[in-house]
Design brief:
With 274 residues, this protein is of the alpha/beta class. Helix 6 links the parallel strand 2 and strand 3. Strands 1, 2, 3, 4, 5, 6, 7 and 8 form an eight-stranded mixed sheet that branches. Helix 2 packs across helix 3, helix 3 (38-50) packs antiparallel against helix 10 (205-219) and helix 4 runs parallel beside helix 5. The protein has one domain (2-271): Rossmann fold. It has 13 helices and eight strands. Helices cover 44% and strands 14% of the residues.
């Protein structure tokens, strides 16, 4: 697999434009990571000036991810994870949380940003059950047919499909609900879908609209905040787990004390029935 990885990155890395911000690297900057360029830091700083709750929201979202992954492994017995739109695997990412409970847990990170994937592969070089695939989650067939995904995931056993802080970058025209269905289709009964999604900020709607416009202009990526009511139909046919499709502060009440002012994030966990 090493030759495939090297060829894949060799083709993709020359296309990286350090002057164009990337959502994955902006997020890394907000989390305090180092895998970002000056353009990412500038975009992140400008967005945070307009909407100061953004960096804190990113950190709160990471804590929610950790909470869900730990629960999936410890309580629900899930040992396989497909993390879509994973971004840069900074400290406390999926493989660290899952493998702290089960050292043999399998994780496949998938992202469209070659810098994020290059960093992930360097970080995971000595981790036999964690991998990083360069692919676009908007093309489920391509992702599912990727050699790293095919070789690492056993679809006859339950899998957790993770979509954290990424579907708000997928516009309605790309039908996020169809993307979810395509990834859940090969999953065995007892598999889970876990997601978080940026929601409308009713306390600062004008600031959020300004950030959305700037993000689209600088990074070339649209942002579509959505409510729980808009997201819930995407989970049709799945068993939504308590407390439901809710603000992540409902899922993790401690966030109310530690992250008092955050951009809203909706969280959900749903199980594929037998």
């Amino acid at each position: 697999m090493d030759s495939i990885d090297a060829a894949e990155l060799a083709l993709s890395l020359p296309e990286v434009d350090p002057e164009r911000p990337s959502p994955a690297r902006i997020y890394d900057f907000w989390l305090g990571g180092s895998q970002n360029f000056e353009a990412d830091r500038e975009a992140g700083r400008l967005a945070a000036e307009v909407m100061p709750s953004l960096p804190c929201g990113a950190k709160a979202n990471r804590l929610f991810l950790q909470h869900v992954v730990k629960d999936l492994v410890s309580t629900r017995g899930i040992t396989q994870f497909l993390d879509l739109g994973s971004g840069v695997p900074t400290v406390g990412n999926v493989h660290e949380i899952a493998q702290a409970t089960d050292p043999d847990a399998t994780v496949v990170y998938v992202d469209i940003d070659p810098v994020a994937i290059a960093h992930a592969r360097a970080l995971l070089a000595e981790n036999a059950t964690a991998h990083a695939a360069l692919a676009d989650l908007r093309e489920p067939g391509v992702v599912l047919d990727h050699p790293l995904v095919r070789d690492a995931i056993d679809w006859s056993r339950p899998v957790a499909v993770l979509l954290f802080s990424v579907l708000h970058f997928v516009p309605d025209d790309n039908r996020p609900e169809d993307i979810i269905r395509a990834f859940m289709a090969p999953c065995a009964p007892g598999s889970y879908l876990a997601l978080s999604h940026g929601g409308p900020d009713d306390d600062a709607p004008e600031a959020q609209q300004a950030v959305v416009r700037d993000y689209a202009s600088r990074a070339g990526v649209p942002v579509t905040p959505r409510t729980a009511a808009q997201i819930t139909p995407w989970l049709a046919g799945l068993e939504i787990q308590a407390p439901g499709v809710e603000d992540i502060r409902v899922w993790l009440p401690s966030l109310t004390e530690t992250h008092q002012t955050i951009v809203p994030f909706v969280g959900a966990l749903a199980r594929k029935p037998a």
